[in-house]
């Protein structure tokens, strides 16, 4: 295992922006993407953090991601819109979609935006937090590349098909569930492969359908849905929600940029926002959600601590506002990226 290293958040943010602007991404879009990736690292979701930057850079270089997209909204029924993201960075497409959900929900009480021709959008809570701050409950999902076999199968049909649910709260931060519908995020397979570590049991099968903890074999084989046949059913339905409303491709129709960075993946995203102000009122919803959060936290016995959904990530972020500890392999890859692009590398110490 390569030793971990600690970096200053501001140095890392500067570097991410430098890399993306070197690939012709406009400064505002680069800064948005940097905030998304770094927040994921701060929250300990390294599979969706700066580990992804070399992949984004290569996809931008080869055309899999369009640095200067001409995105186009099409308005549907009241409260509904679709967005053709023109192969944009997923963060750029999602910010436009979230902004439109906020606009439409403010007048309609509920809104949905379906996105196609997009790419990986980072951690879903980055988007649900924005909606929660405005008093919206949210449901967010996305299609991805093909990495998951349905329950009982051995062929990669599905993506990791993330599901993010968020509700605004009066108690510090939103109530949030942000998860892949595979037993682990695919980025964690890449991280384990880079670090030379093993996967947890039950995450993957090899190309012959045999259980494996080897990330190399897992990448050649398939991830496994969480929750057996029930989790598999959720993953299948989320694929339908994310990709059937627009011209987005299903995972089994997609060439992942992990396999070919020149591929325009045509990911689909769906964002649904429910404005609490249109129901019992925003203050009422925030208060009720805070009551639920605290009841969950108080459910332990003795000195046993119970955390409400979203608590671990926010606690980690609050402890990592100045510095982040990254995997050694990520630091090494960022250093190689700096060399390739003739940029100042991120200072770090072990």
Automatic annotation (TrEMBL):
GO terms of molecular function: oxidoreductase activity
Polar residues: bias regions: 293-308
UniProt keywords, alphabetically: Oxidoreductase
Region annotation Disordered: where it falls in the sequence: 293-318
Pfam families documented for this protein: Ldh_2
Xref: InterPro entries: Mal/L-sulf/L-lact_DH-like_ah (IPR043144), Mal/L-sulf/L-lact_DH-like_NADP (IPR043143), Mal/L-sulfo/L-lacto_DH-like_sf (IPR036111), Malate/L-lactate_DH-like (IPR003767)
Family recorded in the similarity comment: Belongs to the LDH2/MDH2 oxidoreductase family.
Protein name: Ldh family oxidoreductase
Organism expressing this protein natively: Arthrobacter echini
């Amino acid at each position: 295992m390569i030793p971990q290293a600690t970096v200053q958040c501001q140095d890392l943010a500067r570097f991410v922006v430098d890399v993306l602007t070197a690939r012709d991404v406009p400064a505002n879009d680069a800064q948005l993407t940097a905030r998304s990736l770094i927040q994921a690292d701060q929250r300990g979701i390294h599979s969706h953090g700066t580990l992804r930057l070399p992949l984004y850079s290569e996809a931008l270089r080869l055309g899999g991601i369009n640095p200067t997209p001409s995105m186009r909204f099409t308005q549907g029924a009241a409260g509904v819109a679709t967005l053709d993201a023109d192969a944009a960075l997923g963060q750029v497409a999602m910010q436009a979609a979230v902004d439109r959900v906020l606009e439409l929900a403010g007048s309609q009480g509920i809104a949905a935006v379906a996105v196609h021709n997009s790419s990986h959008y980072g951690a879903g809570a980055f988007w649900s937090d924005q909606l929660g701050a405005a008093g919206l409950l949210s449901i967010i999902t996305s299609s991805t590349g093909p990495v998951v076999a349905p329950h009982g199968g051995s062929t990669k049909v599905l993506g990791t098909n993330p599901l993010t649910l968020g509700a605004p709260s009066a108690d510090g931060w939103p109530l949030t569930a942000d998860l892949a519908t595979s037993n682990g995020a695919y980025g964690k397979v890449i991280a384990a492969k880079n670090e030379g570590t093993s996967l947890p049991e039950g995450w993957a099968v090899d190309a012959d359908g045999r259980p494996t903890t080897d990330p190399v074999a897992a990448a050649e084989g398939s991830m496994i849905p969480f929750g057996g046949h029930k989790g598999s059913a959720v993953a299948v339905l989320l694929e339908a929600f994310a990709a059937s409303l627009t011209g987005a491709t299903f995972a089994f129709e997609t060439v992942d940029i992990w396999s070919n960075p020149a591929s325009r993946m045509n990911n689909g995203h769906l964002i649904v926002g429910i404005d609490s102000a249109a129901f019992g009122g925003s203050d009422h919803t925030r208060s009720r959600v805070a009551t639920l959060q605290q009841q969950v936290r108080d459910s332990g016995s003795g000195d046993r601590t119970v955390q409400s959904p979203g608590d671990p990530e926010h606690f980690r972020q609050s402890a990592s506002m100045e510095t982040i500890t990254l995997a050694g392999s990520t630091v090494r890859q960022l250093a190689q990226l700096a060399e390739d692009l003739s940029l100042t590398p991120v200072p770090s110490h072990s």
